[in-house]
Amino acid sequence: MEDQFIKTATLIGDATRASILWNLLDGRAFTATELAVAVETSAQNISMHLGKLLEADLISVEKQGRHKYYRFSNKEVAYAVEAMVNLIPKPKVAVKKKSEEYPPIKYCRTCYDHLAGKIGVALADSLLEQKIIIEANGVFEISSEGIKWFSEFGINIEEAQKQKRIFLKPCLDWSERRNHIAGSVGAMLLNKMITEDWVRRIKDSRAVTITGKGEKELLRYFKIVV
Length: 226
Known about the structure:
Blueprint: H1 2-13, H2 15-24, H3 32-39, H4 43-55, E1 59-64, E2 67-72, H5 75-84, H6 104-107, E3 109-111, E4 114-116, H7 117-129, E5 133-136, E6 139-142, H8 144-153, H9 157-162, E7 169-172, E8 179-182, H10 183-195, E9 199-201, E10 208-210, H11 212-222
Antiparallel strand pairs: 1-2, 3-4, 5-6, 7-8, 9-10
Helix pairs in contact: 3-4
């Protein structure tokens, strides 16, 4: 196990491969050419690095027509990459908390397939405060009242539990240093917000913008003032 850990850590520690994994946190699948542009390397070099990541099962590839698309092999790889960002030393200068002084990527962004940043953490705080979810020993669980709340909110908890992935988990936010919500429940929450136009993706960025409708609904359901 120790040898395998060292091998994986060394693999991720390469600057180009680390940059590839960081870009895949966008949640989309990328071609080798797109990744080469994103990490500023050659087509030959990107092919070598992608091959090593494929061999380690950190990414997967899917062929569609003439193109091959690369993405994380599973959700847990994405969560592990995001969690590594928390190893970056916290700035000594206090971060200003007003929303207009937050960079968009820190204020509201996607963390692979769920909501993160200041708004993502605020959403988790609201669900905990309302006792829709409860935290025990570092684990998130949905309360009996929460099951009813999610049903009325339009999220099928039984369907979320059937998915072959983590159901609900706290995910340490690298910019806020506190937990937001990951797992199938987190993904369903973000999907609802996108589908109902509460938030909109920003092209070529993990940051998302909150719409006027989103401001009203976040206040209504989660008591979040944007």
